Amino acid sequence: MDALIETLVAWGLPGMFLSAMLAGSVVPFSSELVLAGLVKLGVAPMACLLAAGLGNTAGGLTCYYVGRMGKIDWMKKYLKVSEEKIERAVKFLQGKGAMMGFFAFLPGVGEVIAIALGFMRSNVALTTAAMFIGKTLRYAIIVYLVMKI
What is the structure's pLDDT at 94? Predict the structure, then answer.
């Protein structure tokens, strides 16, 4: 895993985008290490933040579109998300709308939120915007902390 992180840091901003996209999907990956490495190497923090936010949103949208396809068996098989988790998330999100995509950055439940929003066919533009804002704010906090250390 360390070699992969080092490689992604060496790739610069495209590596940041890719690592954030992986982390935003159901792949367990720590894009925060790549972000910290790039910021510490002197890459422009705003460029890192934009690459991370866009990449993580793209990863979250993969979950959204799998949910939108509505194939529960795929969600269980490929995303390892149980039907019960999806049903609970859909029940919780009912009436709250696409803006709940903001919380797709949350570890452990973010992917389920994105899948449920897709399953519910929430507004794609609003969901994408909410995801981008939430995920980018989370990365902004990380950039701030890395710069202070």
Answer: 86
Would you say 5 and 34 are in contact if contact means Cβ atoms under 8 Å apart?
Answer: yes
HEC string of the chain equals: CHHHHHHHHHCCHHHHHHHHHHHHCCCCCCHHHHHHHHHHCCCCHHHHHHHHHHHHHHHHHHHHHHHHHCCHHHHHHHCCCCHHHHHHHHHHHCCCCHHHHHHHHCCCCHHHHHHHHHHCCCCHHHHHHHHHHHHHHHHHHHHHHHHHC
Whole-angstrom distance, CA of residue 21 vs CA of residue 1: 16
pLDDT, tens digit, 9 for 90 and up, residues 5-63: 888 889 999 999 999 999 998 888 889 999 999 999 999 999 999 999 999 999 999 99
CB 113, CB 103: distance < 8 Å: yes
